[in-house]
């Protein structure tokens, strides 16, 4: 997959924070699923969110995208509260690739990627300009979807559909990209390719991931969540200690660096089974 240009061409200098979260808590169905979360993402940086199932990763992304109201705290997306922005204005600032792509069923791949351009039109009924078409073709090419462009999305495999949803988010040409487990259906080659592509965009990216080594390799900073609470907010080398991985994931962990390139090597294995004491 070919790296995409940032909307303005060259990657922007990393100076200001494009995402700022302070004291964020969120309740769903009367249960607190995020508690007092705070962090900032520098413009152009990639933030990875890690944590076990149910730790609040998707809820945090939904809060950033303005889809979920916090019960306390403050979120700023390029200086603005996402829930105070008009939908079109918010969509020009950020794009969310969600895990659930059922909204796209019944459309071809090209149509679905083209939906990323709708936010840039005055009306959904206004014409599909040459620039829009070129951006859609570019996104299809970058995600290696040209051969699938006329196929209905419901006929695609899980990994192909995942690439379509990423292409749609790219076609939106946002300043901030939110990705919810962008690699979970992808084979290893496409995982690397998609993450290389994301890295090459030069825009701010916040993504949830389950693969800890991929997160360590492609993210500038990592958040670790457990039960809705922040356990770490640091560069991968500092966030991913063996003690913290054991505490967060309840697995045995060993972390060292590969001699060949100095990258983090993370070895996880089950904890010794606990004896079940029966009275
Ligand atoms: N609409 C909802 N109503 C009530 N509870 C919800 C709702 N959505 C999520 N939850 C709960 O909130 C908690 C956090 O869910 P969330 O989807 O954010 O976790 P996650 O870290 O993304 O999990 P996973 O790794 O399994 O995708 C979970 O306990 C989940 O059951």
Automatic annotation (TrEMBL):
Per the record, the domain of life is Bacteria
Keywords, in A-Z order: ATP-binding, Nucleotide-binding, Plasmid, Transport
Q: Which InterPro entries does this entry report, sorted A to Z? A: AAA+_ATPase, ABC_transporter-like_ATP-bd, ABC_transporter-like_CS, P-loop_NTPase
What Pfam families has UniProt attached to this entry? ABC_tran (PF00005)
A molecular function GO annotation:
ATP hydrolysis activity
Q: Matching SUPFAM superfamilies, A to Z?
A: P-loop containing nucleoside triphosphate hydrolases (SSF52540)
Q: Which PANTHER family does the record match to this protein?
A: ABC TRANSPORTER ATP-BINDING PROTEIN, HEMIN IMPORT ATP-BINDING PROTEIN HMUV
Q: Which family does it belong to?
A: Belongs to the ABC transporter superfamily.
What is the designated name of this protein?
Answer: ABC transporter ATP-binding protein
Organism equals Azospirillum humicireducens
């Amino acid at each position: 997959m070919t790296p995409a240009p940032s909307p303005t061409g060259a990657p922007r200098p990393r100076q200001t924070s494009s995402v700022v979260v302070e004291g964020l808590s969120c309740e769903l169905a009367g249960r607190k699923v995020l508690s007092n979360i705070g962090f900032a993402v520098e413009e152009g940086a990639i933030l990875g969110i890690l944590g076990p199932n149910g730790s609040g990763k998707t809820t945090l992304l939904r809060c950033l995208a303005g889809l979920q109201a916090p019960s306390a705290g403050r979120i700023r997306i390029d200086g603005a509260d996402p829930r105070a922005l008009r939908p079109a204005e918010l969509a020009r600032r950020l794009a969310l690739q969600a895990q659930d792509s059922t909204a796209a069923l019944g459309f071809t791949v090209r149509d679905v990627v083209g939906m990323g351009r709708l936010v840039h039109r005055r009306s959904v009924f206004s014409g599909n300009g040459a620039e829009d078409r070129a951006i859609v073709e570019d996104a299809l090419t970058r995600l290696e979807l040209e051969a699938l462009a006329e196929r209905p999305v419901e006929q695609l495999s899980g990994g192909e559909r995942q690439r379509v949803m990423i292409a749609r988010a790219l076609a939106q040409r946002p300043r901030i990209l939110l990705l919810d487990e962008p690699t979970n259906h992808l084979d290893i080659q496409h995982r690397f390719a998609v993450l290389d592509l994301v890295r090459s965009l030069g825009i701010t990216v916040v993504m949830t991931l389950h693969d800890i080594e991929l997160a360590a390799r492609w993210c500038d900073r990592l958040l670790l969540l457990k039960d809705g609470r922040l356990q770490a907010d640091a560069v991968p080398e500092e966030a991913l200690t063996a003690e913290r991985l054991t505490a967060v994931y309840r697995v045995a962990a060993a972390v060292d660096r590969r001699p060949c390139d100095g990258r983090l090597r993370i070895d996880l294995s089950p904890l010794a089974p606990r004896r079940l004491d029966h009275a």
